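Posting here for the record, re: zinc ion.
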Amino acid sequence: MADHDHEHEHDHDHDNDHESADGDVEREARRLVALSRVRQYGDGVLRMKAREVEIFDDDLERLIERMTTLMHEANGVGLAANQVGVLSRLFVFVDAGENRVLVNPVITKLSSDREIDDEGCLSLRDVLVPVERATRVTIEGFDASGERLELELELPSARVAQHELDHLDGVLIIDRTDDESRRAALAKLRPQPVLGAR
Ligand SMILES: [Zn+2]
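Prediction output follows.
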């Protein structure tokens, strides 16, 4: 499966390097601004467990709208509240071209079928690691207005949803991958020394 099916930055930098059309330049600028609003690896909020949402009000709807816009501008297909610094159990994602939100999501069924595929994350830029996920999941939760919701998801949405639900528990893709991929990812995430500094 193509990795653009997961939540993550797709590295479109290379595609856009040589394009000069105003639309592309503007879109890339928007993507970078959006990414700067997504909490990055090292930020403690990504390691914290989010709390159940108890009040379904206008603030919640505004948060969901803001996250949905940010997800699209950052070229992602999923975004969890932790990633915008909000410790509430909700995430947005794209399922078969439709914007979706799940508030207080709980996985009620996981297939025993598993598949390993590369995943990226808007909070771990430039990292792509293999992660094993169930190929089908059933998730119960609520929509933005507090209506009960049950979604049966298959790949690629099943993978996205498991990834986003992990965020709500402070779990990242580097926790789910093999040792070698984790080491390589951590080396990338380490701040690079600046030549000539000191
Ligand atoms: Zn992520």
